[in-house]
Write a structure and sequence with these properties.
Helices cover 25% and strands 33% of the residues. By secondary structure, the protein is α+β, with helices and mostly antiparallel strands. It has 3 domains: 178 residues, tricorn interacting facor f3 domain (Immunoglobulin-like), CATH 2.60.40.1730; 88 residues, Zincin-like (2-Layer Sandwich); 127 residues, Neutral Protease, domain 2 (Orthogonal Bundle). The protein has an 8-stranded mixed β-sheet with strand order 5-4-8-2-1-12-15-14, with no helix packed on it. The chain has a 5-stranded antiparallel β-sheet with strand order 9-10-11-16-13, with no helix packed on it. A hairpin with a 2-residue loop joins β10 and β11. The radius of gyration is 22 Å and the shape is globular.
């Protein structure tokens, strides 16, 4: 009897039912923001260029902890607006038809703060000397109005004004910086499609340093330590380009804060680390976050339940770097992590881990071990063809597990009915890790 793929809940935001609105998509965000670190006061106008996806008389925009004062639709003041704890509800006297395009300009202000979630506090975080934003998965509305859906990706233009002694970094390529009075205005633009959860912001007492094709932002006092710890990044980029194709982003920025952070934070073209991540044992995290620029930030998921396509691939890239840098081989890394995973509880479904286990380490490691299983089945050469095609052919596109299964079948003949998918994706039990193919 052949295995058939089960029917799952395929709604993109099935885990985030309070976030986003499927009735429209955003093509572009234009943000004009003014921030005062001393008082943690943020004022701004966010203009969303939207396209209606289904006939409707209302739209919902996510905004948490900040107050909207005015809403304009195509330049006209719109008064049919109500504001709840998490959303703006914008009602219309007529039916908006599929395919219509509108500009929603929302003026808002307040003191941004993180929001509580199932995964802890996320979003805007005020620091002793500035602020940072960790939006994944639903923290973006803590600093700008948005359609906070994993499958709604847009381009961005931003003007960010701040006290002149602060350095500002945001997702996208940095443009001109102008000064007026005691403030500076920074400009950023991103032409690649970006999900709201991957838009990052940093305000702090940073200095900018070059590193390979990218840059590092960190306080001047800790640059010598950071320079040593993050020196491998250019070589990592070369290794990953050899495996996965050309670096897919417009920017390559690494931020190292003065504060200690529990975990690094990925964003489009940017990664954030705490000063505690400078230890040699943390080098695998550098590889993990850099790999996300291919897997998660370029090739991105259409639904949260497929998070293994982001995290499993980034975890596997850690093993690629380990082998390339003279450390344990991919095979040895996989065997070690399999032994660790075997000691943990076996109640996780990789294809649908559930919202509470979305970022569970078992998702990361089981996803990487599925890839290692495919490498052992296909052989290293065919597997590398698979990984490169996945990264290149789906560059800046939304994907599902079914898309990956189809490519595996095309490259290696392993079909969706093969037991490998049942055992690793759809069963909770941890399957045996097969032996490597004989050369």
């Amino acid at each position: 009897m052949t295995f058939k793929l089960p029917i799952l809940d395929t709604r993109p935001n099935a885990y985030m039912t309070e976030s986003g609105d499927t009735r429209y998509a955003v093509a572009q965000y234009r943000l004009e923001l003014d921030y005062t670190p001393r008082t943690n006061r943020l004022e701004g106008t966010a203009t969303l260029r939207i396209r209606v996806l289904e006939d409707t008389k209302s739209l919902r925009v996510d905004l948490i902890g900040l107050k909207a004062s005015k809403v304009r639709v195509d330049g006209w003041l719109h008064r049919q607006v109500t504001h709840s704890r998490r959303h703006l509800q914008i009602k219309f006297d007529r039916i908006l038809l599929v395919g219509e395009e509108l500009d929603l300009a929302i003026e808002y202000a307040g003191r941004p703060a993180p929001t509580r979630s199932k995964w802890g506090k996320i979003g805007w975080e005020e620091l002793d000397t500035g602020a940072l934003v960790a939006s994944q998965p639903t923290g973006a509305p803590t600093w700008f109005p948005c359609n906070d859906r994993v499958d709604d990706r847009a381009t961005y233009e931003a003007l960010f004004t701040c006290d002149r002694e602060f350095f500002v970094a945001m997702t996208g390529a940095q443009g001109p910086v102008t000064s007026r009075g005691g403030k500076r205005t920074w400009t950023f633009s991103s032409s690649v499609p970006t999900a709201t959860y991957l838009v990052a912001l940093h305000v702090g007492e940073y200095r900018e340093y070059s590193l390979g094709d990218g840059r590092i932002l960190t306080p001047a006092s800790q640059w010598p330590r950071v320079r040593t710890a993050f020196a491998p990044i250019p070589r990592m980029k070369d290794v990953f380009e050899d495996w996965f194709g050309e670096y897919p982003q417009e920017d390559l920025t690494t931020v190292v804060t003065a504060e200690e952070l529990e975990i690094p934070l990925e964003a489009q073209g940017m990664a954030t680390f705490g000063i505690n991540h400078c230890a040699p044992k943390e080098q695998r995290l550098l590889a993990h976050e850099l790999a996300h620029q291919w897997f998660g930030n370029s090739v991105d998921i259409r639904r949260w339940s497929d998070i293994w396509l982001n995290e499993g691939f980034a975890c596997f890239a850690e093993w690629v770097w380990s082998e390339a840098s003279g450390g344990p081989s991919i095979e040895v890394c996989a065997n070690q992590h399999y032994a660790e995973l075997a000691r943990k509880s076996k109640d996780l479904l990789l294809i649908d881990p559930g919202e509470h286990d979305l970022f569970d380490d078992r998702v990361y490691k089981r996803g990487a071990l599925l890839l290692e299983t495919l490498r052992r089945m296909l052989g290293n050469e065919s597997f590398r063809v698979l990984m490169r095609r996945w990264a290149v052919e789906y560059k800046h596109q939304l994907v599902t597990s079914e898309d990956f299964i189809a490519l595996v079948e095309e490259v290696g003949g392993i079909t969706g009915q093969d037991d490998v998918w049942k055992k690793w994706l759809y069963d909770r039990a941890l399957p045996p890790l097969i032996a490597p193919a004989t050369p």
